[in-house]
């Protein structure tokens, strides 16, 4: 009986410990500017720049399976479509694709600053 209680306790400890690790991994990836935490998008109707995380995107296509393969509908105005792009780390400009300087370095197409 005593041994059974011990085994039960150690299982509980493992489960608790595992849950803690999973929790800390999830919360560590939740920074707004974290590049893997989502995609910067711009709405083609209201022009609002938004960071869409994979979870929000997944939920949208789960709720609207007919929209699969099409750009996501803007959650702000519900009219426009979101264009995927990148955020300029210097001035926060939204751009779809980086430009290129004469020497081949990437440049922000909006503010024309070389990208780090
Ligand atoms: Zn919009
Ligand atoms: Zn820029």
What does this entry look like structurally?
The protein is α+β, with helices and mostly antiparallel strands and 116 residues long. The protein has one domain. The chain is 32% helix and 18% strand. The chain has two helices and six strands. It has a four-stranded antiparallel β-sheet with strand order 2-1-3-4. Strands 5-6 form a two-stranded antiparallel ribbon. A hairpin with a 5-residue loop joins strand 5 and strand 6. The longest helix is centred in the first third of the chain and has 27 residues. The relative contact order is 0.11. About 10% of the residues have low confidence. It binds zinc ion (2 copies).
Defining traits:
four-stranded antiparallel beta sheet, 116 residues, 6 strands, binds zinc ion, single chain, 2 helices
Oligomer: single chain
Provide the domain count.
1
In N-to-C order, the SSE pattern is HEEHEEEE
Ligands in the model, by name, code or SMILES, are: zinc ion
The biggest sheet, with number of strands, parallel, antiparallel or mixed sense and barrel status, is: 4 strands, antiparallel
User: Which ranges are low-confidence, i.e. pLDDT below 50, for 5 or more consecutive residues?
Assistant: 21-32
- Summarize model confidence as the mean pLDDT: 84
Q: How many DSSP H or I helices? A: 2
Strand order in the sheet with the most strands? 2-1-3-4
Beginning-to-end CA distance, first to last residue: 64 Å
- Overall 3D form: flat
Strand content: 15-25%
Tell me the structural class: alpha+beta
Q: How many beta-strand elements?
A: 6
Q: What Rg, in angstroms, do the CA atoms define?
A: 22 Å
Kindly state the percentage of residues in helix: 25-40%
